[in-house]
Amino acid sequence: MWNKPWTMKEGFAIGAGLIVAGLLLELSTGPINWDAFIWPVNGFVLAGFVAIIVAVHLLRRKVYAFRFLSTYQAAIPSMLYAVTLTIVMGLTRQTISPNPFTNSEGSMWINNMLSFWPFVLIYVYMALIIGLVVLKTPLNTKSPSKIVAGLFHLGLFITMTTATLGNADMRRMKMIVGKGEPEWRAIDQRQHIVEMPLAIELKQFIMEVYNDGSPRRFASDIQILTKSGKNILTTVDVNKPVKVDGWKIYQYGYDQTMGAQSSTSILELVRDPWLPYVYIGIYMMLGGGLMMFITGVRRKEGAV
Fold first, then answer.
1. Is 147 helix (H, G, I), strand (E, B) or coil?
2. Does the predicted TM-score (pTM) go above 0.85?
3. Half-sphere exposure of 84 toward its Cβ, with a 13 Å CA cutoff?
4. How confident is the model at residue 268 (pLDDT cuts 50, 70, 90)?
5. What integer is the mean pLDDT of 150-164?
6. Where are the alpha helices (H) located in 92-179, listed in sequence order?
7. Listed residue (277, 14, 66) closest to 169, CA to CA
8. 38-65 burial, b if ≥16 CB within 10 A, otherwise e?
9. What span, in angstroms and rounded, lies between the C-alpha atoms of 164 and 166?
10. Which of 2, 14, 174, 202 has the maximal Cβ count within 10 Å?
C-alpha cells in the first residue's frame, strides 16, 4: 500500500483512519455540540470549508494526496462508508441525550448519529471529495455530459453542507396552549423551557370522529401574536401547518382524557432557515439526473 498510484485500498484506509480518529474524539471530547455552530458560526465554517477545498484544488499538482482525493478511487470508498453509516442511522432509533455516551435508555452512540464524530468526519470527507470534483469540471467545457455531472455534484455538495451545518439552526419545539391563556413558552428537544418570539392562544379545539368514536381529524382554531406586531386568527391542522415569521406550526396533540372537549392543544413549532438551500441542492441534483437521462436517451437514439 501507499505506492503510487494509489488505489481503492488507500481510499478505504483513509476512511478507516477517519473512523478511528472519530472514535478517539468521541471518547475524549464527547459528541459534537451542534449548538456551538449556530449562525453566524456555521456560515464562517462553510466559508472556511469552501476555502480549504479551493486550496486543495489549487495545490493538487504539487501534492499527490490532494490529487488523489478527486479520483474515483477515493470517492467510492468514502461513499460506501457514508452509505453504511447512514443505514445504521436508519435502522436505529435516533434520540437526543444530555449524556455524552449514552441516552436515557442506555443506548450507545449510534442512537445520536448526527453528533457522532466518525459519522460527521466521513460526511465531511465525502463533501470535500465532491467539492473537488465540482472544481475539476472545466468552466469552458462544451461537453453536455460534463456540464450535467457538474450540476449534479454541485447540487449534492450544496445539499450535504447546508443540511449538516443548518442542523445547528434548526429548532423543533412543543407548545401546550390553552383557552384564554396566550402562551409564549415552549419546550425544546432537550426538555428546556424556551421563550418564543410569538404567543399562541387556543380559541377552539376541533375534533371529528368515526362511527366507532376514534378520532378522524383534530385541529385547533388559534390566535397568534408576534413580537413584530402581527395578530393572526387561523386554524392549524395535523398536515396543514401555519407559517409565521419563519416558523411552521403543526397540530401535534391534545388532552386525550378530555377528547373532543379538550381545552388544551399541543402544537409543534419548527424553524429551519437553511431548508431552502437544501431544496436548491436537491432540485439541482434532480435537474442533473433528468439531464443525464435525456442525454443518455439521445446517445442511444444517435447510435441506432
1. helix
2. no
3. 12
4. very high
5. 92
6. 117-136, 144-165
7. 277
8. eeeebeeebeebeeebeebbeebeeeee
9. 5
10. 202
